[in-house]
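Title: Comparing notes on inverse folding

I've been comparing how different people in this forum approach sequence design from structure. To keep things fair, I'm posting one structure and asking everyone to reply with a full sequence. Here's the target:
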């Protein structure tokens, strides 16, 4: 030992079975374990064929004023078969977005809150406009419930969607559903309208995407069903006096997210995105609900996740880093 210095023996690192696995280049994002995902089975987009009792129960309590269209398959010969064209029901979206993401920079947009605020600066968008005719006698104030505008002011929401697509050149747009869960809608006493809120927001986005795609079929546009974090957190106490307190359970989050997912998919979403996550337990609940939906339907739906880092440490509010 050198004087003043302590030397440590060099011990070889323990080897595990995975150390001997031959690395392979990734050709696509990690696949879920379902047969549909593993085999790249195209989504049939015929949601009326999905009759699982839990999904049917959510549809049965819908507040929509008429029976909705929930099928979005396109004729197989609508567009050419090769990339960059895409036909719903014929092509695998998983394969398509893999080709898209590996061939050029794709643009996703859909920050609805800021665009709605900008619209309100130029146009009248007060309590009366938020309520519309449908909710003119509602029991509480609804101004600020941006998701509600998909029902009461659909032209505003669809106009924003088209601006993202036509002016911004977005390939994918998020739906106006950041708060469209029973948990978040409790602030406005609109829990019963969750299916309709999600359905209408996704339907408006579907129509806008199809209209813009028809003008240039070589650049298909896709609807991303936006699943927000809710206004409650599963792993953080709302009380500074008692860190054990919770105002929502994991199962309640799962149920709320599942109802939202059914509405988003019935409205014509292509992709689901768990977005702006600040608590990873909420994210796990949303992903669990998505997993249930995929298991019940047998579909392969691409899933995105975005998180919110709250400070320069690069951590979420619940303390996790991206890694």
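Reply #1:
Here's my take.
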């Amino acid at each position: 030992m050198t004087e003043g210095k302590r030397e440590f023996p060099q011990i070889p690192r323990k080897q595990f079975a995975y150390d001997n696995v031959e690395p392979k280049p990734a050709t696509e994002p990690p696949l879920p374990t379902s047969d549909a995902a593993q085999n790249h089975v195209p989504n049939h987009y015929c949601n009326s064929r999905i009759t699982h009792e839990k999904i049917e129960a959510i549809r049965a309590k819908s507040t929509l004023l008429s029976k909705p269209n929930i099928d979005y398959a396109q004729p197989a010969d609508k567009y050419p078969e090769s990339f960059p064209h895409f036909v719903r029901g014929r092509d695998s979206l998983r394969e398509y977005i893999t080709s898209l993401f590996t061939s050029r920079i794709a643009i996703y947009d859909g920050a609805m809150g800021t665009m709605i605020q900008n619209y309100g600066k130029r146009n009248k968008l007060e309590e009366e406009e938020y309520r519309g005719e449908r909710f003119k006698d509602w029991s509480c104030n609804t101004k600020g419930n941006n998701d509600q505008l998909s029902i009461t002011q659909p032209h505003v929401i669809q106009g924003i969607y088209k601006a993202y697509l036509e002016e911004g050149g977005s390939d994918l747009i998020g739906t106006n559903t950041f708060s469209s869960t029973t948990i978040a809608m409790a602030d406005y006493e609109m829990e019963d309208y969750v299916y309709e809120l999600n359905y209408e927001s996704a339907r408006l986005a579907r129509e806008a995407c199809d209209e813009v795609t028809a003008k240039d079929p070589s650049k298909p546009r896709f609807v991303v069903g936006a699943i927000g974090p809710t206004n409650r957190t599963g792993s953080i106490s709302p009380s500074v006096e008692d860190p054990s307190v919770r105002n929502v359970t994991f199962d309640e989050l799962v149920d709320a997210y599942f109802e939202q997912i059914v509405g988003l998919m019935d409205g014509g979403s292509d992709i689901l995105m768990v977005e702006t996550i600040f608590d990873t337990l909420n994210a796990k609940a949303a992903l669990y609900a998505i997993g249930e939906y995929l298991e019940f339907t047998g579909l392969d739906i691409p899933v995105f996740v975005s998180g919110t880092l709250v400070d320069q440490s690069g951590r979420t509010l619940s303390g996790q880093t991206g890694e």
